[in-house]
Amino acid sequence: MNLEQWCQLDERIYIAESDERYKQYAGLPYNEKAIKRLAEIKNLSSKSFLENFDRPRELVLAAIENIADSSTKKLELALYEARNKKVVSKAFRLAGAPVNWSSWRQFNSKTRDDRARKRVFDEFTQKTRFVSPVIKKRFAEIRDVYEKYGTGKKIPSPLAGYLENEHVSYSQLISFVKSMGRQAKKPFHESLVDISKKVLGREAEYYDDFYFFRNRVYADMEQYFVKVRPPEQVTKLLTNLQFDMSRIAIDAKNRKNKYPSPICFFVQVPADIRVLYKAESPYFDLQGCYHEMGHAMHASSVDSNASYWDRYGISMGVAEIFSIFLEGLTKNPKYLTSLGVTDKKVLDDLEQRNNFMELFFVTFYTANSLMKAEFWRKDLSMEQASDLYARLLKEYVGLEVPGEYWMLHHILPDAIMYVPSYMLAAVRAAELERHLQGRFGDEWWEQAEAGKHLREIMAPGASIKLSDFSKMDAGVFMKEITA
Ligand SMILES: [Zn+2]
């Protein structure tokens, strides 16, 4: 088997797997046994790659990651089970069922009872003792996979794999993250006092977390967005920019078992990209829909003749650029005006709240990133990780949060790293926007040429030339949100 044959085979497996997973998330009939079997086949395919090939590095990295992922599937499911069956409230219910980890955020956004939110937060913090052993075991097994399969390929640890995939060194990443956190700290703390008074009528407490604020902070703005139809608007935008919409499908149907958040599937890059979307609250939907369509715009623009690894081996720090970039339009007063949201006071208010959420994002993700990096680098115990996390949240977010909270997050206990990629991408997205404004003017989205230029940037897939628009200058992003 030569490399080309291996790639063709692996791509067929990948396509079948994503198609089946798409159906599952869409709430359509799907075959669970097929999903399990395909995961096993994928695992074998990755192992055969490592036995036969040493390059390209993108595929070496992906193969080890796939093995780590598929060989810890049982523990992943155990974590999912423990979250929903053990992290459950004794006293509080939502829609007739006890609040559990999955319905927690929804509960927080629905209830106006602060004491109830505090009690659930405290109870769930206590109950992290049920998920802690599973998280510990799963991460230990992932570490073992890297030792076993990666040592000979110079990828001896999960952290080493992540850094090589993102093309950054450990010290570069840490100083980048710390410098953003340091710049955001003070303006965030000031803004937190202000916004808390406005939307909560009191000072923020440890149980008023990022996800609670992300919902509550827009509560009185939603009414101005009820007439905006996100899927139609974003389709019109991308059509005007001359993207090939025949490659992108948006499913906006409401099915009972459909995944609640918008999500994008790269079923076959670039020809078959699918976005799932479910209407919930107007402004939140607008942001989510543009974010996922940014992923779709990106994946559908990759050159169909690019290599297998350039089409699929795109790092998160690159993939999230285009989603954050397109989502940026939903925060752009000029673009919002074109959607019919014209009240100056509303647009000003919205800008202030968006800036607050961006600052919250930077401080929170600084703490998240630094904790996870230390976790892998120093092989921390669960207790040490929680202690460190409490210290980092105090330092950057400024609140005294119990450190066990990291185990209740939806990315930190699941992904190897992932979190700093959002920070890398947010900075690059701001630079990309600046780049387009420089070439095509402030309202670049009105020019079909801007679409063509974007496609040129995105066409190489994983081999993207970031230096064409990015110097990794955090100043561009930070200036926007601290203005
Ligand atoms: Zn995304």
Structure explained in plain terms:
By secondary structure, the protein is mainly alpha-helical. The chain has two domains: 1-87 and 127-156; 167-483, Neurolysin, domain 3 (Orthogonal Bundle). Helices cover 63% and strands 5% of the residues. The protein has 20 helices and five strands. The protein has helices at residues 3-26, 32-52, 57-71, 73-85, 104-110, 114-126, 128-150, 158-166, 170-200, 210-216, 230-240, 282-299, 308-312, 316-327, 333-338, 344-377, 382-396, 419-440, 448-458, 474-482; strands at residues 88-94, 97-100, 248-251, 263-268, 272-276. The strands form two sheets. The chain has a three-stranded mixed beta sheet. A hairpin with a 3-residue loop joins strand 4 (263-268) and strand 5. Helix 16 (344-377) packs antiparallel against helix 17 and helix 16 packs across helix 18. The longest helix has 34 residues, at 344-377. The termini are far apart. The model has no long low-confidence stretch (mean pLDDT 95). Zinc ion is lined by residues 291, 295, 320, 323.
